[in-house]
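pinging the channel bc i need a second pair of eyes. not urgent but kinda urgent?? the chain im working w is below, pasted from the shared doc
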Amino acid sequence: MARTESNMLALGTPAPVFELPDTNTGKMINLQQLKADVATVIMFICNHCPFVIHIKDELSQLAIDYQNQGINFVAISANDAVNFPQDNPANMALFAAQNNFSFPYLYDETQSVAKAYQAACTPDFYIFDQNLLCVYRGQLDGSRPGNDVPVTGADLRAALDALLTGQPVSEQQAPSLGCNIKWKG
């Protein structure tokens, strides 16, 4: 597995707009529909990446813990599903169901959304405030497959908790690390 760090989109960057199909429902969903009162968390993930598999339970738990507090979550996969069929929309819907995702799991077939967000790896995390400005980008926490650090979501939770209490989000943010997005040839 290739270990790729996130590109760290500049803080304050407006969230690039998008409209993508939700693999759970087949409906098109756009950014404005996902925009929340406090924050919107956008996660670039995929089904087969060991880094994503390592944290999948925490992704579900985060949504459970924060969705009722004015924070929305969305996952997006931009992987080339032709060369990586395990990441195709049907398998994405299955992965979402198996892992009790309570948030949309969108498919970026053209990879244009991933490029607009400067996403580089899976998982790659972004938090946008109520005005859809980037206040966090980086890692879920310090856990990685095989490093024996517990998966807690500490970094993402600290940023969300700051927003919930009206505090500034710390600008000391570590990049995420994961498999590279599987770009089309």
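so The chain has a mean pLDDT of 96. and DSSP finds five helices and ten strands in the chain. — does that match what u expected or am i reading it wrong
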